[in-house]
Amino acid sequence: MKSNVTVATAHDQGACVPKNWGDSLSYTIPQFCAAYHFSRVYYYTLKAKGKAPKELRIGRRVVITRKCAEEWEAMMLAETQADGGNRTAII
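^ that's the sequence the OP posted. Answer follows.
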């Protein structure tokens, strides 16, 4: 019997993403990228340039705390405002 429930798998989304971002205290890298609507490739490009959020390593798992995500967002907004909002891409 088929189920009427659709489940997003890791293959579909790159990660299983929580329904309510507000309930999450930390993000995996795929969750963070999904929350900010950009690819993991772009995340690693930012990381190579020193512009990614701070990461917390727990064993082999890498997470980005909500506080670090908020600090990163504030930093990115400040950079955008500093250049007059003319930037369309960080790369």
